[in-house]
Amino acid sequence: MFSKKENDRVRDLTREKARYDWAALHMPLEDARRFGFEEGLARGELIYQIQFAQWMLKQPPTPRDDLRKLSAEQLADWLAALEQQVLGDGVV
Domain extents for the chain? Predict the structure, then answer.
C-alpha cells in the first residue's frame, strides 16, 4: 500500500500527464483553426478579386457558392486568366 505522500505524488503526476495529453491533443487544433482562418481569408480575397475582374469585363458574376466549391489553386488560376483578359483589353 502507498503512503499518503506517495499517493499525492502519483496524483500530481497523473494530473500533469493529463494536462500534457490535453495540450498535445488540443494545441494542433488551435494551429489548424488559425491556419483555416487565414486560408479562408485568402480564398475570400480571391473570390472578391474574381468577381471584381468579372465586373470590369462586364461579365455576370459567378455566384459565391460556386466559387467557394473551388480550391485556392483553381481560384488563383481563374483570377490569372481574368487578369489577362483585363490587361489584354486595355482596361485598367
Answer: 4-88
